[in-house]
Amino acid sequence: MARTRGAPKTGAGRQRDSDTVCSGNELQCFRGLLHRCCRSLELSSVPEVVAGRADEVAFLTQFLCEKLSKRQSGSLYISGVPGTGKTLAVSKVLEYLENESGQDPFNVVIVNGGVLSTPKRVFTAIWSGLSGKKTTPEKALELLDRRFGTLSKDRQCDVLVVDELDRLVTRDCAVLYSLFDWTSQPGGPILVGVANTLTLLDDTIPRVASRAGLARLPFSPYNNHTLFNVLVARTQAYLVDNTPLFSQEALKLCSRRVSNISGDARRALHVLKAAICLREAAVLGGSSQSTVSTGDITQAFKSCDSGVVGAVRMCASTEVVALIALYVCVRVSQGQRQEERSGANVSMSGCLPLFCRYAKASGLDSQWNIEHSWSCLVTAYTSLHSVGLVTLSCLPPTLSTKLTPSDLLAWEDIEFVVGEDWTWGPDVLRVVNLEIADTDKSE
Ligand SMILES: Nc1ncnc2c1ncn2[C@@H]1O[C@H](COP(=O)(O)OP(=O)(O)OP(=O)(O)O)[C@@H](O)[C@H]1O
Ligand SMILES: [Mg+2]
Q: CB 3.0-4.6 Å disulfide test: which of 5, 272, 334, 415 passes with 344?
């Protein structure tokens, strides 16, 4: 794919000056370097480059440049499993288009569906982004319909980015239809929708999804190699005595282990930060080794994992059964490939029958009237959501609420805790493993 001239940086070559240990108080300087590196690995820290996403960045830049220069409306759907750099790529391309590309000025509104209290609030957010004024969702929809229904040569183009678009799915999909229908209006916006599922639009708004004008940009999951390149790009500026703070082997180990589970770059960044803390503690304890090694990464995985396993251990029995139901539901609905499992989200209604079945196998259901299974499930998932083991697409959950398991928690962790901690554990695991074996056979 041809790269648009001067497109945002995507990690080819060294992109910034290195950060090295200063002279003077060596220990202080070393710790300063570690802290700066840790801060740069925070999720809130925006890296200078989108490493290894040259094709995706070029496609997005070209799409937006073309639409903006022709003053044309249009829609692009970006999909990919969590932590694959979608939000980062979009923000970098917009930054480039606004500041460096020489494009005529345009309006940009970025809305994240995940932070809205209801899907239709997206209209309020968009209208407020365009006009600076707050209003009700209904009024905002009316005003936006009017704006996009009228062609105005004097107005700047409107670029709408709707991230976490899947959070805007409603029973009638009216919000999604409105967003995408605007792009076929005379004064319509350029819409960029971002979500995790490849087929979200085909499943929800097939009439729009089959339109020839809808462009699509899938972000493939990071594999071992691509994640390694991301980690190199994120850490290569930090040098100790002209040696990278992280050894190549350490970064390779981290990318291999994360890509085996989910390929979510967030998880890898989290582990690198934990490894830095371990190295700092070791140096303060007298170690003369200043670079982060594979040993630190292995320890860091253990300390990150023990947090999650510890959290499962603190759960009530109904919550653990609800977790089991979720994992089996994801496994059955998405197949057993790891990268699919991590990006999956299933609904409360899918988990309910499994929850009832496993509650029965554990004998726990004798403690509640079966009619209360639903309220037990709601309480269990709400509590799991609050400790970060599960993410619910809305609160309080309804039958159609989507659930995503924490990517830090593997099925093996649950199996381990359930087998060790609960007297009913082996009975439930037997039922679960039989069901999984049946599913695998039929795949
Ligand atoms: N190619 C990359 N280069 C540098 N950093 C990256 C890259 N990909 C991801 N990251 C970092 O990983 C984290 C997650 O990336 P991002 O938020 O863009 O993921 P996403 O695909 O939008 O995930 P989600 O679907 O969960 O919203 C961010 O901190 C981001 O800076
Ligand atoms: Mg994102």
A: 334
